[in-house]
Design brief:
This protein is mostly helical. It contains 15 helices and no strands. It is globular, with a radius of gyration of 21 Å. The termini are far apart. The model is unreliable at about 180-200 (pLDDT under 50).
């Protein structure tokens, strides 16, 4: 493998780690644009397969997808380079903010910038849904399945993992019966996805966050419930401090799980921050390393191929549900609507601006318009 490949992986995911605001859906959208559209490291169907499979294993989905993309370009080493380069910027920023919060009891006022970024990234997510949706919708039955998952997520508030699994299983059964695949014993080829000192000692911090990282399903947004049970309920952290930590994870770029760095610093200083960061992200590297080689084999199996198709459509539908919810939360006045419209023009316009410029536009306009 050429060293240029590793450098390319490091530069790309280091950049994304610095500008990937907006949560997992926005991260996936930016990755799709960089990895599929611009660099053509893989085709859109394989990217969809990786995205769908990633949604079914524990850990931060978008961070694990960076590892998959790194593996496609640079093998196992590429997997680690991509994941580390995506994670480190958020960890460093969050660690610095934890230092400021602990020393001064307050955080810098970045709300005006985040206000604009939240509106701008809606366009980036919408563009990814459009491109991935076109590839995922191979027939009208998958379209119906996607609409059903969207309705389940929006109207009935079904958990995203449950919606994905239900969509995958129900859709697979339908296509299996329709195409009489049960006559082929080969369709059921078994596939095993994976086998499964300070205020608090760094080792204990590491083990606590290792456990959370190993069982965390869905996006980083469900992290609050896990950490509440692990730390607040046991008296190690106050709920107010946990909410501050979650907020920091939301408005810094990269994975929301950088929240762990903030909490680790509160519990054990810099050594606690390092221990928490390594603990919460380590399981993802292991899960992806085990899963990545199996995805092409899943595609070769008829039944598992149906399952991937259905999960892919369901994943795009969940992204659609996230986009609608984010729109409801972010577009509360004329200023945010103006930013979103400009973002759409930049993303879908004839120049099709880089996501970095869309994020930059949103942050600057967000700040300027709050002065009006």
């Amino acid at each position: 493998m050429s060293s240029n490949h590793y450098k390319e992986i490091a530069l790309l995911f280091g950049k994304l780690g610095c500008i990937a605001f907006g949560g997992p859906a926005a991260h996936v959208a930016m990755m799709e644009d960089e990895v599929v559209t611009k660099r053509k490291w893989m085709d859109r169907e394989h990217f969809l397969d990786l995205m769908g499979a990633t949604n079914l294993i524990p850990g931060p989905n978008s961070t694990e997808l960076t590892m998959h993309c790194g593996h496609e370009r640079g093998g196992i080493l590429g997997l680690f380079i991509a994941g580390i380069c995506f994670i480190v910027p958020a960890v460093l920023i969050t660690g610095f903010l934890a230092f400021l919060y602990t020393k001064y009891g307050d955080l810098p006022n970045v709300e005006p910038f985040i206000y604009g970024i939240k509106a701008a990234v809606l366009a980036i997510i919408a563009a990814a849904i459009y491109k991935l949706g076109k590839k995922a919708l191979k027939n009208y039955e998958l379209g119906i399945l996607g609409v059903a998952v969207l309705i389940a997520s929006l109207v009935f508030q079904v958990n995203e993992i449950l919606a994905l699994l239900a969509g995958g299983v129900i859709g697979t059964l339908y296509f299996w019966i329709k195409n009489n695949s049960f006559n082929s014993a080969q369709s059921f080829a078994p596939i095993i996805l994976f086998k499964a000192a300070g205020n608090l000692a760094s080792t204990k911090i590491f083990l606590s966050f290792l456990k959370v990282g190993a069982i965390l399903y869905g996006s980083g947004y469900v992290l609050f419930a896990y950490l509440d049970a692990e730390l607040v309920a046991t008296g190690l952290l106050s709920r107010a401090d946990l909410m501050e930590a979650i907020a920091v994870g939301q408005f810094t770029p990269g994975p929301v799980l950088s929240t762990a760095t903030f909490i680790g610093y509160q519990l054990g200083g810099w050594s606690g921050a390092v221990a928490a960061s390594i603990g919460i992200f380590l399981p993802s590297f292991l899960f992806v390393a085990l899963l990545n080689p199996l995805v092409p084999k899943m595609r070769q199996s008829k039944v598992l191929g149906y399952f991937l198709d259905c999960v892919n459509v369901a994943a795009v539908a969940v992204m659609g549900a996230v986009l609608i919810k984010m729109g409801q939360e972010s577009l509360g006045d004329w200023k945010s609507i103006v930013i979103a419209i400009i973002g759409i023009a930049m993303t879908f316009g004839w120049k099709k601006s880089n996501a970095m410029y869309v994020v930059l536009m949103g942050s600057i306009l967000g700040y300027l318009l709050t002065l009006v």
